[in-house]
Fold this sequence. Notes:
The protein has helices at 26-38, 86-102, 115-129, 142-148, 180-196, 206-210, 212-216, 261-277, 279-284, 298-303, 316-324, 343-351, 363-370, 384-396, 403-408, 411-424; strands at residues 10-15, 42-47, 68-72, 133-138, 158-163, 199-202, 222-225, 248-253, 285-290, 308-311, 328-332, 355-358, 374-377. By secondary structure, it is an alpha/beta fold.
Amino acid sequence: MAASSSEISELILVSFHFPPSNGIGARRWAKLSKYLAKQGIKVHVITTPPANPSEKSTWTTDVENELIHIHYVPSGYPDIQPSSHPVGKVFNRLRLFSLEKRTKGTPYDKAVFWQKGLTKTALDLIKKYKIRHVIATGAPFHALSHTIDLKKHVPNLKVLVDFRDPWTNAVNYGMQEISSKRKSYEVSLEKKVLELSDVLVGPTHPELLLGPSFKRASITGIVEELPHFYDPEDLPQLEKEGQDQDKIKIVYGGAIYMDLEETLDKLDLALTAIKENHLDFYRRLEWKIFTPHLSKLEKIASHHADIFFPQAPIGKEELFEKMADADMLLILLAEHNKHFRTTKFFEYLTIRKPLLMFGPEGRVSHNIQSEKLGVSIEKESLNGKILLENLKRLKEDSFVPNEELIETYSVEKVSSDLIALLQKVS
């Protein structure tokens, strides 16, 4: 049953990127804002202006609602774009040098200079509309720290923090490149956020997501997983077509993450073994991979050009049609994201096809196995025999998610869970 929204009529969302911006994280909170508004909650969004005034994200129409009010606050962060030109490189180095002089922690966090404008706008809204709840999502993570600092001005303010990614234990965001002194400062900010938040959430449970950082902090707030989701309004209506029973079609659409080289090499060797020992079965295989990272697949594609077909990304509706016609859907994960169920994972469920995962043991593999959604193969076990056995199993057995599980991950259900969490700290 959906939680009642009667106790919360208005709230603030701090999201550095928000439609029409195409920035990272824009989708998650555009969708949640859309469904909060559907339940009668007015959402005041504090965000940064789009870098390009003509920019229009895929999710712009989702936030075109009279209950979603967008308040633009410039970040004050200098524009640093990759440049191969000598002059451009010099200017970028000078900008970075200036950033390092003006910051204590990472100079790469784009919200580092955002506090003054964010604080003024938030306090004005809190006073004018008597707002009691603020949500902040990161990365960039300094937006979380700035939001927590609002409690210095409004002690009874309730803050829900959404960690979409790891912070100080991240493999990206430049966290591995900064000095130990700067890293210590980031750790102190992260600890403050963890300890002063009233509610901590993430698409993966914060304890798994943050690892050592979570264990170091004395957390007193509510800690819950608020998973990614699918929006039924985004899913194309697919007609089921008669499948070619002779073919075994495996489809993947998305990024090829860092640190997958060894897994791809193992897959290459496994396919070679199947070709040498089970040629008839090998000829039935058809791998269709739609990704912007085609260079990472050149080796395996050259060795198996007759069955392995990497291609540039295609439109979402066309990709869904390819998936609906597939026998199984591929998931590729590395060590750093073994616990992260992406939006793609939940959209896969709605297609009701078996999942074939290559990746380490973690939250995703456990979910696949416990819910009988498919099979998961670790790279250490990936060889011709194991791959052959599991491909046959996925082709012949039934791995279909039940309808109750699918409904659990609709955006409407997740937004109702979000409201329930806010009500707990009202």
